[in-house]
Write a sequence for this structure.
């Protein structure tokens, strides 16, 4: 399973998005350019990675709880972008 979302944004938006990801319970291991995400919810473990090229932030979810449909996860990532006035 691999779910990818690319968001056009500037560096300040990357910082805000990573803060939001932390609020969702993820541990972020990296900097504002790239890194790994891992976390645990009551439904199970999730993991992924991110890369920022100066114009686009790419989030790749590589592991998710079985009980969460990919469509729901994709919607949540899109909501995260919209929260910061960005388009995915």
């Amino acid at each position: 399973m691999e779910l990818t979302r690319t968001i056009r944004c500037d560096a300040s938006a990357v910082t805000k998005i990573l803060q939001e990801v932390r609020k969702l319970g993820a541990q972020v291991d990296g900097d504002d350019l790239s890194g790994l995400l891992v976390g645990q919810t009551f439904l199970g473990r999730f993991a992924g990675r991110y890369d920022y090229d100066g114009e686009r932030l790419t989030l790749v979810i590589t592991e998710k709880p079985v009980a969460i449909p990919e469509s729901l996860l994709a919607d949540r990532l899109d909501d995260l972008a919209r929260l910061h006035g960005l388009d995915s």
